[in-house]
């Protein structure tokens, strides 16, 4: 069970967002609330609305704020809501963190500045501003998209100043887990990419901000519990499950991860649907591959 005094721990799903099939692809808030409840019923510990999987970049301010409120209202007692508060400006990020707190969220997930390759002073200043909202801040290291790398040294500085409580590690370099633990022993490590779940789980991660539980929550939550239990017997169970799921989990680290996960959701009988532009539906061999790999996992009985 997650530590509810640390509401960023456990399996938090970076939720996909359903849209109505109309000209504007308007947000299906009722469908989103149902998905939040579904994830809670299937063993997840919380959700992260307004992440990249939630296509926050395409939402209006009104839509983005309402998504957070819907998630909080749909969440059962003890189920966490940790919204993404990414924005070009530090003040804007802090305002999104304040909105999250007003809605009832207990923590936020914050990228570094992503409008340009920010230097150290700008990154520290950004997190100082977000921390002013008063909620625990989980840093999100995604140097592939932001071009800003939250190195172990920089994370230690942010944590030492009391600006962050954890990091979602999405660099893909699993070796960093050990240096982060050495430089910032009190900083919680959260798995940031589905396809390094086992490696970071063994390295001491206490949470997972996850993509594929959107489609197959039972199997992925079980995998997380096995990978982080510290039991050799559980590791023996985790390895074959990880191998079976890994072809799907790898999509979480690809450019087309939003479309891929939504395709898998549709095949699993859930509400995936279309993405808003500029993301378009997968086609050709890429679409066929997602379908093939998803159907293989479902045929094995994983849900």
TrEMBL record:
Superkingdom in the source lineage: Bacteria
Entry annotated with the keyword Lyase: yes
Keywords from the named record: Lyase
InterPro entries xrefs: Aldolase_TIM (IPR013785), DapA-like (IPR002220)
Family: Belongs to the DapA family.
Keyword Lyase tagged: yes
Organism: Streptomyces rugosispiralis
Pfam families: DHDPS (PF00701)
SUPFAM superfamilies the UniProt entry points to: Aldolase
Protein name, entry field: Dihydrodipicolinate synthase family protein
């Amino acid at each position: 069970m997650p530590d509810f005094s640390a509401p960023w721990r456990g399996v938090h799903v970076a939720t996909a967002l359903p849209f109505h099939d109309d000209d504007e692809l308007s947000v299906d808030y009722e469908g989103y609330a149902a998905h939040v409840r579904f994830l809670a019923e299937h063993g997840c510990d919380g959700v992260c609305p307004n992440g990249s999987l939630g296509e926050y970049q395409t939402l209006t301010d009104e839509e983005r704020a309402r998504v957070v409120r819907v998630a909080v209202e749909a969440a059962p007692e003890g189920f966490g809501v940790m919204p993404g508060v990414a924005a070009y400006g530090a003040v804007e990020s802090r305002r999104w963190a304040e909105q999250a707190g007003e809605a009832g969220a207990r923590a936020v997930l914050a990228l570094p500045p992503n409008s340009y390759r920010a230097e150290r002073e700008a990154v520290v200043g950004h997190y100082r501003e977000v921390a002013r909202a008063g909620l625990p801040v989980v840093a999100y290291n995604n140097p592939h998209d932001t071009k800003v790398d939250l190195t172990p040294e920089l994370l230690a500085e942010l944590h030492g100043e009391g600006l962050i409580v954890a990091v979602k590690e999405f660099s893909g370099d699993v070796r960093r887990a050990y240096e982060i633990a050495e430089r910032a022993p009190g900083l919680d490590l959260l798995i940031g990419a589905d396809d390094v779940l086992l490696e970071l789980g063994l390295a001491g991660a206490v949470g997972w901000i996850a993509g594929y539980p959107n489609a197959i929550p039972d199997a992925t939550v079980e995998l997380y519990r096995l990978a982080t239990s510290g039991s050799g017997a559980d590791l023996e169970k985790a390895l074959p499950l990880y191998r079976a799921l890994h072809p799907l989990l790898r999509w979480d680290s690809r450019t087309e991860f939003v479309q891929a996960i939504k395709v898998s959701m549709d095949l699993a009988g859930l509400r995936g649907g279309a993405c808003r532009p500029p993301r378009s539906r997968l086609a050709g061999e890429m679409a066929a591959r997602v379908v093939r790999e998803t159907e293989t996992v479902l045929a094995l009985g994983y849900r």
